[in-house]
Amino acid sequence: MKLKGADILLKMLQEEGVDTVFGYPGGAVIDIYDALMEEKSINHVLVRHEQGAAHAADGYARATGKVGVCLVTSGPGATNTVTGIASAYMDSIPMVIFTGQVPTALIGNDAFQEVDIVGITRPCTKHNYLVKDVRNLARTIKEAFHIARSGRPGPVLVDLPKDVITAATQFNVPGEVKLKTYNPTYKPNIKQLNKVVDLIAKAQKPVIFSGGGVSLCQGHRELTELARKLQIPVTSTLMGLGGFPGTDPLWLGMLGMHGTFRANMAVSECDLLISVGVRFDDRVTGKVDEFAPNAKIVQIDIDPTSIQKNVPVHVPVVGDCKISLAEINTLVDKKQWEELEETRKPWLAQIDEWKQTTPLAYQQAEVIKPQYVIETLYDLTGGDAIIATEVGQNQMWAAQYYHVKEPGHFITSGGLGAMGFGLPAAIGAQVGAPGTTVVDIAGDGSIQMNIQELATAVQYNLPVKVVILNNGFLGMVRQWQELFYKRRYSSTQFVHAPDFVKLAEAYGAVGLRAKTPDEVASVLRQGLECNRPVVMDFVVEPEESVYPMVPAGAPIKKMLLV
Amino acid sequence: MSEKKHLLSILVDNEPGVLSRITGLFSGRGYNIESLSVAETVDPGISRITMVTKGSPMIIEQIQKQLNKLINVLKVIDLTGTQYVQREMALVKVNARADHRAEILRITDIFRGQVVDVGMEHFTLKIEGDAEKIEAVLNLLKPFGIREIARTGCVALPRENR
Asked: Rounded to an integer, what is the distance from CA A125 to the centroid of its chain?
């Protein structure tokens, strides 16, 4: 059967089980859009900005565990996705991005809407392709999906010149992908796992430190089993939230710059740190030399480059986190664990003391405290909502006060920290999880970076809820200026801001506002009950800061607590 | 930790853009490239990159892992500390006045170099060997005035067991 490139693309999307594409048309991809019109099995979500398409595909991937797909035109369409691609790359999210390109004959001629997107995205994709011949198209797409979802996942970009899309060729579904240069290691080395179990047996003060890798491989059950079985307290990175139930007594809270007192203390005092699916980011380690100074460090990760990149590791384990944890659990079951409770008692008591003396806390006041909004949201949703966040204070308060229970329920731009991520990511998550409450926790700064996507939510009747913690500042930068720059608030105050309620209404969404603490619960309740996109504007304390805070470059033990 | 030179032999897909992935990795992550040479192998689908790089043991470990992570990289071999043969070639254009010509030819001879181009005022010499030998020749030729140099960078292969 002879097919045009555009039709081959759609056939391959079906082959890969893709039913949703986030995109934006343009000259270079007009033929693909023409073919899409006939294709009923693919739901195309028309965003309002290509950055929104990339973040939405990302949010969709995180909420569903499937590969997120976006489709954009050449030149500016392609460059607009770059922030979204870079964010997905940092957080290891499986995505395939299709970009249009000028016809092969014009490549390199500075043609209209031409950009070397393969060159631009080389450092922020797991891999990328320029398809120069329609005969390679099907195989390339197959490889792209294989690479995106296997091993340590990541975004893969496929650049499609216009003549490749319009040319026809014989189409056969390509066979299994076998790349001689790419073979991720899933199965861990059993000798290394035995060493891990031996270390656990000797440890008096162990801590499990989990990251995004656990959620990506759905290893949360194995992780929880190990922690509960051996009574090991668990902390995680921002990306790791949801990998262990935030309601479990063994949960320490998040680690790092805005980690809880007990998590930072526990890691600083522990004698064994079992790291699973983490990469020891600087926001987590603080001063590297003083990170977990007394601990033997175990690191389990599917990506060898993550191991020993920032911190020397005593027992490295290269392998899939889920498989590795399952095998560790099996080894643990074969061993006698006498007096486990006695051994753990002093350590757990110490942690409990830290929790009692220095819990996460804030002072209630006449004005709304942002932490109170998140706490109330948590209570009203029973902790069952999918939370997307923007970046900054809103993101940290969400991480601290919304106790996520399972993977795929905390969607945040962790590594890149891209403001404007939350709303489109929430839209993507809502498309992927239609029956679930999806809330974007935002600041008044970051919401304005992709607020145009409200139109997308309204058009597709996606009832996402936007909670704006409106403090009139770029709060996180303001907080740094307050603490480290003598309160010199250089360019962090929004002297003019839109009326978010009216803005929501102008977009066809519902707008609500709360100005006092006693209005918070009723506005949230009203917003959550509404089956339409809702923007809730909470006028909060302008100069509230996120605590605890570890100043950049300090050891995580040295926290500012007020 | 002390920085040490390492000689890496990297087998990659012989495809457009692969070299750029590798050099981009080095520039993006702040690794050093001291020399680089690339050409096709017996298998036309595969190229060999021979690279001299420098770094602490932890950095060298990362360089190898990061290279292996690139989809187009087939194999990374660190030849440092193993048995291998290596060669580099340099073309050296040196001033050669009548009263210096005999001395320059003698130096060239001692190092088993060759004259590949001659003019009234210059020789172009071909020198071959490891980096140290080439440095030695350049040092000896310096007083005569070196006009231009072109060096290939190091190429190397592991020795086979006899």
From this structure: 16
Q: Which of B37, B61, B78 is the C-terminal boundary of a domain?
A: B78
Total CB pairs under 8 A between chain A and B: 34
Mutate to test the interface with B, among A122, A131, A136 (most CBs of B within 10 A): A122
* Whether residue B113 sits in one domain with residue B97: yes
Interface membership of B23 toward A (CB under 8 Å): no
Nearest to A181 among B25, B62, B72 (CB): B72
Cα–Cα distance measured from residue A337 to residue B26, given in angstroms and rounded to the nearest whole number: 48
pLDDT of residue B35: 93
Taking the C-alpha atoms of residue A78 and residue A82, their distance in angstroms, rounded to an integer, is 7
- Last residue of some domain: B47, B78, B109? B78
B72 touches chain A (CB under 8 A): yes
Residue A312: phi, psi to the nearest 5? -65, 140
- In a mutagenesis test of the A interface, which of B62, B64, B75, B76 is the best target, namely the one with the most A β-carbons within 10 Å? B62
Grouping H, G, I as helix, E, B as strand and the rest as coil, residue B123 is strand
Set of chain A residues whose Cβ sits within 8 Å of the Cβ of B43: none
**Is A119–B20 a contact, with Cβ atoms under 8 angstroms apart?**
yes
- If asked whether residues B72 and B92 sit together in one domain, one would say no
Between β-strands B122-129 and B84-95, what pairing exists: parallel, antiparallel or unpaired? antiparallel
Q: How far apart are CA A524 and CA A514, in angstroms?
A: 9
The distance of A374 to chain B (nearest Cα, Å) reads: 38
Residues of A within 8 A of B25 (CB-CB) are: 123
Please check whether residues B146 and B111 belong to one and the same domain.
Answer: yes
Domains and CATH numbers, chain A: 2-170 (3.40.50.970), 190-357 (3.40.50.1220), 370-539 (3.40.50.970)
Please, which contacts does A356-359 make with residues 24 or more away whose CB atoms are closer than 8 Å? A358/A261, A358/A262, A358/A561, A359/A260, A359/A261
| pLDDT on residue A562 | 76
- Chain centre to alpha carbon of residue A41: 28
* B71/A308 Cβ within 8 A: no
Mean pLDDT by 10 residues, chain B (162 residues): 91 95 96 94 96 95 97 96 94 96 96 96 96 94 97 94 77
Q: Which amino acid would we find at residue A76?
A: P
Residue type, B153: G
What is the model's pLDDT at position A462?
Answer: 98
Residue (of B138, B151, B9) closest to B89 by Cα position: B151
Question: What is the per-residue burial (b if ≥16 Cβ within 10 Å, else e) of A106-144?
Answer: ebeeebebbbebbebbbebbbbbbbbbebeebbebbbbb
Contact A147 B71 (CB under 8 A): yes
Question: How far is the alpha carbon of B11 from chain A, nearest alpha carbon, in Å?
Answer: 10
Q: What is the model's pLDDT at position B161?
A: 81
For residue A92, what are its two tokens? Answer: 């290891």
Q: Which residues of A are known catalytic residues?
A: 50, 112-113, 162, 476
Inter-chain touch B66–A305, beta carbons under 8 Å: yes
- Averaged pLDDT in 10-residue chunks for chain A of 562 residues: 96 97 98 96 98 98 98 98 98 98 97 98 98 98 98 98 98 94 96 98 97 98 98 98 97 98 98 98 95 97 95 97 98 94 96 96 96 98 97 98 97 98 98 98 98 98 98 98 97 96 98 98 98 98 97 95 84
Tokens, residue A193: 């796992």
